[in-house]
Amino acid sequence: MNAPLTLAAAVPTLPEPSVSAAAIPVPARSIIRFERVAKTFPARRSHAAVHALSDITLDVPEGAILGVIGRSGAGKSTLIRLVNGLEKPSGGRVLVDDVDIGALDEAALRKERRSIGMIFQHFNLLARRTAFDNVALPLEIAGVPRAEIKARVEPLLDLVGLSDKRDRYPAELSGGQKQRVGIARALATKPRVLLSDEATSALDPETTEQILALLRRVNAELNLTVLLITHEMAVIKAVADKVAVIDGGRIVEDGATYEVFARPRHPTTRSFLAALTAKSLPRRVAERLSGEPREGRDQAVLRIVFTGQHAQDPVLSRVSRLLSVDVNIIQAQVDEIAGTPFGVIVVSVPGDAPTVSAVINAVERLNLTAEVLGYV
Ligand SMILES: Nc1ncnc2c1ncn2[C@@H]1O[C@H](COP(=O)(O)OP(=O)(O)OP(=O)(O)O)[C@@H](O)[C@H]1O
């Protein structure tokens, strides 16, 4: 027998998104601004020129956490390296707090970098320095007197929960602890923005969660603007107020994280979200799921997203009746972005191409999004 077909029956109560939570407050002021930025690495010997970034226009509002997600080679690292001047744009401008980073000479850039903290996937700590001395390093370079350094570093170690490890060397710390040192070091010069380059990619899921919670905390407590790059939608979901999806050196979609999760428009965004949903499917389905419709796989698995106003709609029974197809519910859950709930329902329908596209069209006519996760 088929599962119940109304969303209201399938999914626990889904409240209307509250206006304050759904509409992320976007301060007028951008602290990082990409203006029609291009970056081309010139041809060298046998290598052709690489157009790593094209026509990037993006604003990071003050106090926000903006996540840039893209696959390997999409241009994420190049994008973030333009912000601290490790690369110069071939076209356009990158502004940090209204300063054109690409136009600075070396001395001015060194000074400006004090207001741009950065954390890295592999932490980049100095092995021969203790946790305290790693955090102190940027202050020593800036010529801050020793007593002041101590007064600055100790509260930072406290903030990241490492006061008891102050005299430990990196080799004596776990990955999560090393990243905490990295965060404290990035905060030492009281930056206005923090750049995060895949900062949780080398960490296990539990430690990732703790580090992301710490980023959220420093963002809120210090009103620090964060620009992070990642290839994982789970990271975006956990911390980002806003998201930009980058593909082939271009931003293909951006917006408030809730909006992008609830109504993804670009195929790249949809496939990142599908991969995230696929991870949480029941094992019996996940193990059989294949990307291609093959003989013997006669059911397509679809992910349908709905927001508050649709919770009571009998969407699935309507689609089922309209098209005379069986719609089976595999999983229904309420997901949440920054406190705003939205529903994700995974269904299976007959897997032949005409039926699948008819179901997707019918669902989209109801202003919901649907995409194929695979075939079982
Ligand atoms: N210094 C360089 N010289 C030439 N090409 C480069 C250079 N740095 C990056 N590229 C190229 O620019 C493109 C974007 O690279 P980038 O490192 O920004 O991607 P990414 O999204 O960060 O990838 P990953 O997730 O694998 O680190 C790639 O094609 C890369 O090979």
UniProtKB/TrEMBL annotation:
Keyword terms of this UniProt record: Amino-acid transport, ATP-binding, Cell membrane, Membrane, Nucleotide-binding, Translocase, Transport
Cellular component aspect of the GO annotation: plasma membrane
BP GO annotations: amino acid transport
A Pfam family of this chain: ABC_tran
Domain ABC transporter: 32-273
CDD domains: ABC_MetN_methionine_transporter (cd03258)
PROSITE patterns, per database record: ABC_TRANSPORTER_1, ABC_TRANSPORTER_2
GO molecular function list: ATP binding; ATP hydrolysis activity
Gene3D superfamilies: 3.30.70.260, P-loop containing nucleotide triphosphate hydrolases (3.40.50.300)
Family recorded in the similarity comment: Belongs to the ABC transporter superfamily.
Job of this protein: Part of the ABC transporter FtsEX involved in cellular division. Important for assembly or stability of the septal ring.
The name this protein goes by in its record: Cell division ATP-binding protein FtsE
Organism of provenance: Xanthobacter flavus
